[in-house]
Amino acid sequence: MKKVAGFLILVSLYLFIPQAFAELKIGEVPKTLTLADKLGGRLDGSPWSSTELTGKVSVIFYVDPDEKDLNNAASEALKAEGFSLEQYQSYGIINMAATWLPNFAISSSLEKKQKAYPSTIYVRDYKKALVEQWGIADDTSDVLVFDKTGKLVFKKEGQLNEQEVKTLVETVRSNLDK
């Protein structure tokens, strides 16, 4: 019995510790990640790279399709600000592996979102690459803000409350001027 318990502890450590060390923290620049081919990419099939997170203030909504409406208030608040697209970019990265929904249904939904938010770049993550490589929360809606150098300046896992939406908008605004 002790051998089984010891084995289970080792397996747990092997599975969970690497992700804990990989967690992206405020003030860090994430390791470069490219979503292309079997890993995912933009709606038009072209690759997406985290190197795009420099030069502008960037907001990523990393979303489980089952939680797609969780942070609509944050999306609407950012849209209402009308930030200059020369200084600001938003990304909707969809965690395609977080749901039982078929990819074609998710893609159809994304095309509708693209019409509602035409300046947002939509990206598919087929293999939970951001979860595994950046330590982002799985099965929820994550909101990340990066300054113009690509450094993480805001992070929220799950639904933003009213105050957090205000903080999100202010974080974007204050980093536009830097």
* Number of domain modules: 1
Q: Which CATH first-tier class would you pick?
A: Alpha Beta
Shape: globular
- What is the number of E strands? 8
Name the beta content range: 15-25%
Distance between the termini: 59 Å
Question: What's the helix-strand series?
Answer: HEEEEHEHEHEEH
Spatial sequence of strands, sheet with the most strands? 2-6-5-4-7-8
CATH homologous superfamily classification: Glutaredoxin
**Into which percent range does the helicity of residues fall?**
25-40%
| Number of distinct helices | 5
Tell me the major beta sheet: 6 strands, mixed
CATH topology: Glutaredoxin
Low-pLDDT runs of 5+ residues are 4-21
Task: Summarize this structure briefly.
This protein is 37% helix and 22% strand. The chain has helices at residues 2-22, 72-81, 103-116, 129-134, 162-176; strands at 34-35, 40-42, 48-49, 57-63, 88-95, 121-125, 141-146, 152-157.
Describe this structure in words.
This protein is an alpha/beta fold and 178 residues long. 37% of the residues lie in helices and 22% in strands. It has 5 helices and 8 strands; from the N terminus they run αββββαβαβαββα. The chain has a 6-stranded mixed β-sheet, covered by helices on one side. A two-stranded antiparallel sheet has the order 1-3. Helix 3 (103-116) links the parallel strand 5 and strand 6 (121-125). Helix 2 runs parallel beside helix 5 (162-176). The chain is globular and about 40 Å long.
